[in-house]
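Study this fold:
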Amino acid sequence: MSDSKTLTIGQALDIVLDTLSKLDEKSQRLLITTAVSSLGLTAPPSNGISSGQGESTAAAAPTSMAPAKDIRTLKDEKTPKSAVQMACLVAYYLGEVVPLPERKATIKAEDIEKYFKQAQFPLPKNLSQTLIDAKGSGYFESTGRGEYKLNAVGHNLVTHKMTRSTG
């Protein structure tokens, strides 16, 4: 598949389901478990779905594969060093981690306030300026009307450069 074409979630789900439907149940479970592990995700709760064989819940419905993690836990794992880094983490959280119905592609000052408080991260003096600074640092793109979208640089900051403090 070419990197130049971005799939929608529906298209990706169709591909995953088509692929899984061609495998037996044991292979389906192995594939899902391996994919979850390879992506560094945690298996979601079973939501009452049971195979009756006492196996891992990783084979729950593919649409529930998002990790069940709150913003405070993610902040503790990633240890942002500044309000700009925390803003990137909030955008990543809202775009990638929260359950699908709650996901959003952009963030604004109100999101900064809400999620900084939930994560118990110190609020900056000027919420909007934090987003402007994050854009100026190359982590966001403006989408207009005080809304910003995490770009590839911001995504890479969160996923590859922000790690748990070891000291």
User: Anything to note?
Assistant: Confidence is low (pLDDT under 50) at residues 45-67.
